[in-house]
Write a structure and sequence with these properties.
TIM Barrel; FMN; alpha/beta; flavoprotein
Length: 285
């Protein structure tokens, strides 16, 4: 099974911790540990690393979502200074928590700081309690998110954007700095067919979560994907390329066969050094 077409990305440890997936060493890990991972992934040619967004989660969600979510803007701002090539992907930023011009300003600044390495991964969100906490509308988050996507496409790389939409309208306002990329990649996350439809019609890629490879392929077959459209699928399970290189190669190849243009990998690890060793071993494959 060929993996020659694969771009590989990492689900960054430490910055997000999921029950049953994260390792004990991550609990007390530091930004320096994260930077060492980012520097190694950068040197080894990985396509992007990730950081997710949650403001605050109900304590009752600990067993399902975990509770640790480092802020992506602060995290990526630091990692941008420690890396050169690897791209920085929000996975995902919740559209309903921000005005589009707020995103254009804050993440446009990140794009400038990182010399054009931003990938804006976005989603419409699903945690009602978090929406209510910050006073954001929940029931219409789908159409509101669609309008935000249209507004962002206009605003991300324009110093004086103009947009008129159902939920958002602006003009005569200067956003400086804005993104340095002429076309910032926008990827849509989610776990529904609707998220894929939103991605195909309004964005540049789809980065689903909690969607099996088989389900992803079935959904992808219903659309004619635009040229250059990115599909980011996770290799199933945790990869251990040091001890199980053939299995790691097979699972990455499987994700590609099911439609991935970029394969997100979660590595087995019991320490920072073990993670770095597996990162190297996977690149060597």
């Amino acid at each position: 099974m060929s993996t020659s077409a694969a771009k590989l990305s990492i689900s960054t440890p430490v910055v997000t911790m999921f029950p049953g997936v994260s390792a004990d060493w991550e609990i007390d890990a530091t930004i320096e540990d994260v930077a060492k991972i980012a520097e190694a992934a950068d040197r080894l040619g990985y396509h992007h690393l990730t950081c997710s967004e949650h403001i605050a989660l109900p304590a009752g969600e600990q067993g399902r979502r975990g509770t640790r979510y480092w802020d992506p803007l602060a995290t990526f701002g630091y990692l941008a200074a420690r890396t050169q090539r690897i791209r920085l992907a929000t996975n995902v930023l919740v559209l309903g928590y921000h005005h589009p011009l707020e995103i254009a300003k804050r993440y446009g600044t990140l794009d400038k700081v990182s010399n054009g390495r931003l990938i804006l991964g976005v989603g419409v969100g699903s945690l009602r309690e978090e929406f209510e906490l910050i006073g954001a509308p929940f029931e219409d988050r789908g159409p509101r998110g669609d309008d935000a996507l249209r507004a962002l496409r206009v605003a991300l790389s324009a110093p004086e954007p103009t947009y008129r939409g159902e939920y958002y309208s602006f003009g005569g306002m200067v956003v400086d700095p804005c993104a340095v990329q002429e076309h910032v990649p926008i990827w849509v996350g989610g776990r529904t067919l609707r998220s894929l439809r939103r991605a195909v019609t309004l964005a540049d890629g789809w980065t689903p979560f909690s969607v099996s490879l088989e389900q992803a392929r079935k959904w992808l077959s219903r659309f004619e994907l635009p040229p250059g459209f990115e599909v980011v699928l996770g290799a199933p399970g945790r990869l251990d390329p040091l001890d199980e290189p053939d299995r790691a190669r097979h699972l990455i190849g499987e994700a590609i066969e099911y439609g991935a243009t970029t394969v997100g990998v979660t590595l087995a690890h019991t320490s920072l050094q073990h993670y770095l060793d597996n990162l190297q071993a996977l690149a060597d494959l």
